[in-house]
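Key result, reporting period 2: structure in, sequence out.
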């Protein structure tokens, strides 16, 4: 029993240590949403039988009360060490939901087990890291049957829908959508030129799509799944209208180029030489992962940031203190202040933060205050 208790304590301490490493995780891989505590992957010890239930032989004898008994563990269809095409299919399905990245293999590795455990926890299935029938049924229901090319990492380009030399409204929509995810920074036009080719290649390379610079159906489907229908303003290169009704600025924000972030008003204000350029709603870390206050500077920008540890996108990340960054949050956009970040400054205005990302330079000041 002492060994079991020591193991449980060690597992709990390990999880606490991991949570402290990355200020912005954990997140839901399927949507990029923050994981509520009730849905986070439990410690391996959390599924163990309680010490009192195994303290003596009588606890498992026929005289034990029904409440002390446990249900048989579901049979594993796939688990650590499994090999073959079924494992390949599992990995492709997990990858399509964002729980797994990289090449598909035939071996059920620790990485595969971690992805399965995350998928199970989000759907309130037993988070064992092994695939039982319930897990497989849930995964199969949410994904399509993989092709052989997908299972064996064969990339084939489809017929081009749009390519260099194409013109028209569809090209404008393509460019505006690429702009939403930070791959296109020029003005939106109706002409598919070299800049569009470069942007499409970058987008494709990041998502294991043949890097042709031409838009086939797979490229278009992936892009539209990540973006929304462009607004008239986006298609006509109109700058987001600034909100100049911000509360009184902190005196540290009145000179130079400053991202001024108020926890009191829950707003981020972009200020240049004392003049407000843009104001957006902001969300911060919880009491367990407080967003640091003080004066900082932008030291790193990653337009298409992705947390591999938590399998979560962090678009337009602008780092200002360790692992803390200003970035777009799909969860904030969906749930508002019902959730919280794990230290980062979440922004829900995707168009606004994309514009801000293009304005901010390395070295620009960041002030986080009450």
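The corresponding designed sequence is given below.
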């Amino acid at each position: 029993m002492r060994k079991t208790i020591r193991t449980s304590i060690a597992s709990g301490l390990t999880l606490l240590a991991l949570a402290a490493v990355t200020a912005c995780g954990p997140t839901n891989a399927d949507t990029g949403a923050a994981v509520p505590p009730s849905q986070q992957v439990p410690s391996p010890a959390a599924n163990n039988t309680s010490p009192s239930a195994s303290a003596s032989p009588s606890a498992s004898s026929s005289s034990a009360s029904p409440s002390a008994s446990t249900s048989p563990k579901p049979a594993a269809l796939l688990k650590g060490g499994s090999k073959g095409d079924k494992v390949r299919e599992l990995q492709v399905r997990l990858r399509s939901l964002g729980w797994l990245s990289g090449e598909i293999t035939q071996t059920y590795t620790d990485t595969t087990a971690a992805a399965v455990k995350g998928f199970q926890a989000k759907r309130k299935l037993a988070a064992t890291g092994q695939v039982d029938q319930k897990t497989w049924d849930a995964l199969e229901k949410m994904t399509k049957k993989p092709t052989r090319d997908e299972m064996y990492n064969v990339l084939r380009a489809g017929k081009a829908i749009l390519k260099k030399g194409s013109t028209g409204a569809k090209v404008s929509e393509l460019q505006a959508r690429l702009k939403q995810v930070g791959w296109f920074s020029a003005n939106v036009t109706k002409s598919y030129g070299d800049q569009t080719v470069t942007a499409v290649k970058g987008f494709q390379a990041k998502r294991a799509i043949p890097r042709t610079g031409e838009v086939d159906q797979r490229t278009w489907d992936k892009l539209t799944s990540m973006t929304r229908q462009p607004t008239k303003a986006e298609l006509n290169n109109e700058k987001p209208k600034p909100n100049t009704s911000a509360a009184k600025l902190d005196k540290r924000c009145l000179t130079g180029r400053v991202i001024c972030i108020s926890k009191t008003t829950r707003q981020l204000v972009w200020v240049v030489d004392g003049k407000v350029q843009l104001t957006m709603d902001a969300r911060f870390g919880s009491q367990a992962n407080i967003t640091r206050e003080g004066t900082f500077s932008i030291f790193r920008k990653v337009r298409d940031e992705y947390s591999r540890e938590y399998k979560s996108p962090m678009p337009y990340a602008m780092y200002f203190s360790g692992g803390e960054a200003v970035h777009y949050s799909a969860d904030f956009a969906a749930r508002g202040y019902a959730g919280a970040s794990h230290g980062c400054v979440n922004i829900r205005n995707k168009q606004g933060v994309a514009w801000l990302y293009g304005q901010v330079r390395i070295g620009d000041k960041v002030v986080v205050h009450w």
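The first strand starts at residue 257 and ends at 262. The beta strands are 257-262, 267-272, 275-283, 294-297, 300-307, 312-321, 324-328, 345-347, 365-369. This case is discussed further under Risks and Mitigation.
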